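Example record

One chain of 412 residues, shown exactly as stored in the release files.
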Amino acid sequence: MKKFANKSEKLFARLCEKQFLKHYIFYKGCCETSNGEIEVGDLIFWLRDILIVVELLWREKKDKNTKSFVKRIGEKRKQLKKDRKYFESEKEIYLLNGNEQIKYWNNAFHIFHGIIVIDSKIELDKLDHQQYKKTLNEDFPIAIMRKNDFQDLFEEIDTVPDLYYYLFDRYKFVKKLFNMNSHIFRDLNINTEKELIGYYKYNENNFPLENWDFKKFKKYWKEYKSNYKNKIIKRNLENRKSYKIDKLIYQIRNIHEEGKNDKDSIKHAWQLSLFTRRGRAQFADKILSGFERIHQKNKKRFFSIQNPVSECWLFFYFKNSMNSEKFQDIAYKEAQNKLIFEMKKNKFEHSVFLYSFRKSSIDTGRDFDEIYLDILDADMIDTNSDSFKNVNLEELDKCGYYEPMEIKEFPD
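Predicted structure tokens for this chain:
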């Protein structure tokens, strides 16, 4: 069980776990070195190749010297650099989440972001200009914010991909603005983060430099909440449907943890988790329709969507009242047809992830009674074979059909 260094660290970890999918929140990583075990990061978000590491700077009440406290931010910046080196190395790192311990996949290392979160209830001195600039000039993005700033993000961001996109766009934006007016970033007492979020969302997840006005920057959050009030309500109502995707991710991850399937089930969970909140909302109706259909006797439904990040196809198959073996055979065949269709027509070179769900003819009160997952890779198909060369695309057209998703922050 993870032992927290202080109450601040514990509360912060619990807060993040409540907001985000808990399977992607970890309380430190443990790495074995020649000098013994060391801890990496105070809080870690890990999803496939996305790694966001938080270093928490906790100010004790008895510490009256805020200048010396602020200087410790430089220490946390250096610590994040060390954290990154450990994660990109070949050393074994285990991530802790309550009683769960997961080995980090070093070969997945690609995207690394750092966040320095300051927990202090009293006013702080301004951050040193050069110290802040060093942070902006690191080889990877680092954000500095107070704990309440980070909490403000939760009102608009509740998935790891959404957090990653915001931090990356924020990093590029702050680098451009810093030399124009560093004050609003160096002064952590004025709640700049909320105004940045308001500006970002007002511009539909963008930071247009040409529209930014330093004179009115303290009004961006208020304008967003006021002018977009009806849009926000409509969006949030639509987003509720996407919680079905979250539930499905939990179920698939539990399959992995309980050993009911091979390790690839975690990859299936990742593929779904890579969609942002708005992305999940766009295909949630299709998932809900699939589960409704299999509650009707002898009904089936299948559809496919393409993951814009991995470029893999996700093929969903729903069927009622079929024995397990036959169900799996047909689901696999349909997914294989999808793979062949994409390879033949679009020169597809990646994988098709099969998500298939069977409902028993006996009412069990569950959405589904069996889930069968598989991964079909393009390199498993012999493109030189006669069977592939003679494929009739018209016969596979139904498997190949999909409706492109247009992901918008606010519905029309």
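Notes: The chain has a mean pLDDT of 88.
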